[in-house]
Amino acid sequence: xxxxxxxxxxxxxxxxxxxxxxxxxxxxxxxxxxxxxxxxxxxxxxxxxxxxxxxxxxxxxxxxxxxxxxxxxxxxxxxxxxxxxxxxxxxxxxxxxxxxxxxxxxxxxxxxxxxxxxxxxxxxxxxxxxxxxxxxxxxx
Length: 140
Ligand SMILES: [Zn+2]
Prior knowledge:
The chain folds into 2 domains: about 5-60, no CATH class; about 60-120, CATH 3.30.1390.10. Strand 2 and strand 3 (about 25-35) form a beta hairpin. Helix content is about 30%, strand content about 30%. By secondary structure, the chain is of the alpha+beta class. The strands form 2 sheets. The chain has a 4-stranded antiparallel β-sheet with strand order 1-2-3-4. It has a 3-stranded antiparallel β-sheet with strand order 6-5-7. The structure holds zinc ion (ZN). Zinc ion (ZN) binds near residues 11, 12, 13 and 34. Zinc ion (ZN) binds near residues 11, 12, 13 and 32.
């Protein structure tokens, strides 16, 4: 899932970075064409911070907001993802943002708990909860 790729400088040139969901878990990979072959680095879970930042910047920040009705089920999923009890209230109110793959994974976990959410692109990650942005990015 996902399929969006970011390009980062790497070794002697550039590499493509992507994250995606496989079997209900996050995976990521970095692919770099080098000399006589392709160098591939991959891992599980969330992307390393610098690579994640590149994916967010180039592929967009995505977000999930939680429906008002299913708080108990949502809280259970959030707790399962390691959200501290003290932050549950604010996370419930603000929603969660991340890479598209991270949000697809979260939406899948919520769906399994019977909570339907929509993954949508956030125009401006600095303004969580604001639908419209005054600064419109120019299309590529
Ligand atoms: Zn190289």
